[in-house]
Amino acid sequence: MQVAANAGGAVRLARRTFMAGDRIDVQKLAAELGVDRTTLFRWVGNRDQLLVAVLTSLADPTLRRAAETAAGTGPERIARVLRQFSQALIDAPYYRTFLRRETERALRLITTKASPLQQHVVGTVERLLEQERDRGHLVAAMCLTDLAYLVVRIVESFVYADLITGEQPDAGKVELAIAALLRGAGHPPGPTTH
Fold it and tell me: 22-34 pLDDT, tens per residue?
């Protein structure tokens, strides 16, 4: 299959390599595209930036599919969307291979502000929360950006549990925790007493 020698082609080829369970090698990728490393770097940045582009290109359609198929409204719908998304991450063998092979890099790129990927996913979740709020199915006593960040951290806690705590990843816990958080998010805390 011929791949266009441009930024989009580079990301598509890197995604195929990633989904085959292989390590993305920038030198090899440049050679397959028939360009030098400098040109590839101009197109896609360094290896971490390329990995983020690949991960984003996989996360977006997965989240979109989950949002299109999840039943319900309000907290339950958001929780189901994130359960489906989490289960897809847990079930993808190439993704788990990447996490095992490059654990430190993967966690840095996926779960920290050092990478735009987490911010991108938080933004997507914030839009889902806004949709439910605008439909009258969700009340939030806190800023939706902060709430979306908490939701994403819950996903990360249970999807990457094996890497963080040694526990098994569990999409069911993602759904339970997010539903509980969002049901309680409409109630501001009461006054504190000293």
Answer: 999 999 999 999 9
* Pure H helices in 92-192: 93-101, 103-111, 116-134, 144-159, 161-164, 171-184
Within its chain, how far is the Cα of 53 from the centroid?
Answer: 12
Model pTM score: 0.90
Q: What is the mean pLDDT of the chain?
A: 93
- CB crowding 57-74: b at 16 or more within 10 Å, else e: ebbeebbeebbeebeeeb
**Cα–Cα dist 82/76, whole Å:** 10
Q: How confident is the model at residue 1 (pLDDT cuts 50, 70, 90)?
A: very low
Give the C-alpha separation, 129 to 82, whole Å.
12
Hey, what's the torsion of the CAs at 115, 118, 123, 129, to 10 degrees?
A: -170
Cα torsion angle, 148, 153, 158, 163, sign: positive
From its phi and psi, is residue 92 left (phi > 0), alpha (psi between -120 and 50) or beta? beta
Task: Convert the pLDDT of each residue in 64-97 to its tens digit.
Answer: 999 999 999 999 999 999 999 999 999 999 999 9
